Amino acid sequence: MSRIRVLVGVLGMDQHELGAVGISKMLRDQGMEVIYTGCFNTPKSIVATAIEEDADVIGISSHSWEYLYYIPELLDLLAEKDLDIPIVLGGSVITDEDAATMRARGVAAVFGSGSVVTDMVDTVRSLVAGEPAS
Amino acid sequence: MIDDGHRAAWQGLEQLFPLSGSALVVGITGPPGAGKSTLTDRLVQLVRQQGRSVGVLAVDPSSPVSGGAILGDRIRMNRFTLDEGVFVRSLASRGHFGGITPATRGAIRVMDAMGRDVVLVETVGVGQDEVDIARLAHTTIVVAVPGLGDEVQAMKAGILEVGDLFVVNKADRPDADKTAVQLENIFRRTAEGGWRPPVLKAQALHDVGIDEIWQAIEQHREYREQASPAYRAKQHANCLLELRAFLQQGLQAELAQRLDTEPEIRASVDDIVSGEADIYATSTRMLHKLGLTPPPDSDLG
């Protein structure tokens, strides 16, 4: 039987891993397989991992500004390799403006502070099912 | 597709058969915390230094409750993420105890056919069936930690029988020598023409003992190539177990499908629940109907 495979990681020099670990556990408890890549990822390493692991969704956890820097590069790299893998970005420092910017750039869903975990899990599921995130 | 257990994947794997068979497959198993992932990373480094390519299958347990899993082994090898000569794939055990799933053999074949010179399979190492990796690997390494003390004696007989090489990792700890000696004593008596598993000490984290481990793997390869009767017997026994596992998997899939579609089976459930029919007699009849057994005796009890 098939399982949803979610790549979860933290980009750049950001060392806040708790959010990533927390969401990984939630996804696991909902029956998904999480490929946990920890910290110090670059867009290149994320893409290489996503290919090796057949990731259905890429989850980036961010507690620093670095997502503004790295996410566009990640999106471009995925497009370059013709990979249609949705990105879900989560983090407590993401402002509403930045969330809008990220979504406009191509991120499938953004979850800032105050987000409900069940919403995040549901979003992952619907993205895999081919529905756009609400 | 292989991961999801689709029988259709078998055809693809069949096509890969002519391309496979050249990779060296090494299994790495042992209890959690023994340092398997670290050792795997060091072995990857060694293979790359030899100029060869490597595939890694890292198997982690699925939650028995939710069916999900956190696959985190690849973190220990993340320095190789951008190295095209290293392909790391994480697999969840998906309900198969002890780390080997039907998918694992398929994945090994794919990596072999991809041209990987060496395939390292790192498995969970808990539970009875951790020995299963020995059926798929040319050489199986069992990683143990010192301080197990009398636990070494209690180590499940299966794993002691199938390990081709034992590594006492974190050997800077006290008790390392004692643990190694205990393991060596177990293998003191080896059958004629058989392979006596070496017991090595290592500190994978500090790059200590890795070359010796590789040498032992090479020595084991030489032993295998001599194809002694003892080794051939082991190969045959392993293959029989594998074949049985395959057939069981296929049979179960087939049965599951029939159970869903065969109307008589569904109808008989009502009769059993109401007490009109006997579950034994019904099962016997169904097995015959499915073409698996000869007709039941009509006058039995």
What does this protein structure show overall?
The complex is a heterodimer of chains A (134) and B (301). Helix content of chain A is 45%, strand content 16%. Chain A has 134 residues and is of the alpha/beta class. Chain A has a five-stranded parallel β-sheet, sandwiched between helices. In chain A, helix 4 links the parallel strand 4 and strand 5 (109-111). Chain A is globular. The model of chain B has no long low-confidence stretch (mean pLDDT 84). In chain B, 44% of the residues lie in helices and 14% in strands. Chain B has eleven helices and eight strands. Chain B has a single domain (8-226), classed as P-loop containing nucleotide triphosphate hydrolases (Rossmann fold). A seven-stranded parallel β-sheet of chain B has the order 4-2-5-1-6-7-8, sandwiched between helices. Chain B has helices at 8-16, 36-49, 102-113, 133-136, 151-154, 157-162, 176-186, 210-226, 229-261, 263-274, 279-289, and strands spanning 24-29, 54-60, 69-71, 86-92, 118-122, 139-144, 165-168, 199-201. Chain A binds chain B through residues 1-3, 24-25, 27-38, 40, 44-45, 48-49, 52-54, and chain B through 3-5, 62-63, 65-72, 74-75, 78, 81-82, 87-90, 92, 94.
Low-confidence stretches of chain A: none
Overall mean confidence score, pLDDT of chain B: 84
Coarse morphology of chain A:
globular
Q: For the record, give the distance between the C-alpha atoms at the N and C termini of chain A, rounded to a whole number.
A: 27 Å
**Largest beta sheet: strand ordering of chain B:** 4-2-5-1-6-7-8
Q: Domains counted in the coordinates of chain B: how many? A: 1
CATH class wording of chain B: Alpha Beta
Q: What is the string of helix and strand elements of chain B? A: HEHEEEHEHEHHEHEHHHH
CATH architecture of chain A: 3-Layer(aba) Sandwich
What is the gyration radius of chain B calculated from CA atoms? 23 Å
Number of strands of chain A: 5
